Amino acid sequence: NINLAKYIDTTDIITDIQWSHQIPSIPISSPAGIISTSVLAPSRIHTLTYTVTSRCVSEQKRKVYLEMLKDGKMRPLKDTIAMCYLYSEAVNINQLFGLEAGGSWTYHAVKSDGTPQNIDDYVTESTSPTHAGAVVMNGKGIYKDNDIPYYDGVNTKIVKFTYKTDSGCLNEESYSIVIVLTDEL
């Protein structure tokens, strides 16, 4: 089962979420957004719609795309992304990778000379008995930390996340993504 609601940002202000699949006969529980992968066609992208009611909006519709991959496969990642530090206080790294599976994470800021710098104070790894857990980065905190130097003296800070899968999932592969935090987007 996949809990789609955990991939929706700002769930603390949402008062209701209703889910539907493009094929009405495929059930999704609401508000949790639980869908069983056994009812989804393999090797296909599924379009799921959720309707949100919150303190700010009423019945606003949005879409989530869920891609079913063959066992042991993962889509190629973008190797580098840029984001405005002002809006990066709670970046769900799992969403950037497009996965949540057992494995281990390493992460660090990258100095201009290539050496890593610890950012443990700005990354939270949550765990749960029902899912592998989320990895959340406070990019704004990293950017404003004066002990983490700008990359090459310009107004950017570079962070690298690496995910290594467990032996039972995705064949013990490692995947990395570089995040450029900047004020110039």
Explain the overall architecture.
- The protein is built from 2 helices and 13 strands.
- With 185 residues, it is mostly beta strands.
Helix-strand sequence: EEEEEEEHEEEEHEE
How much helix is in the residues?
A: under 10%
Question: Would you identify the regions where 5 or more consecutive residues have pLDDT less than 50?
Answer: none
List the total number of helices: 2
Q: Going across the major beta sheet, what is the strand order?
A: 6-13-12-8-9
| Beta-strand content | 35-45%
Distance from N terminus to C terminus (CA atoms, Å) equals 37 Å
Question: Multimeric state of these chains?
Answer: single chain
Largest sheet: 5 strands, mixed
Average pLDDT works out at 80
SSE class: mainly beta
Query: What's the shape?
Result: globular
Number of strands: 13
Specify Rg, calculated over alpha carbons.
18 Å
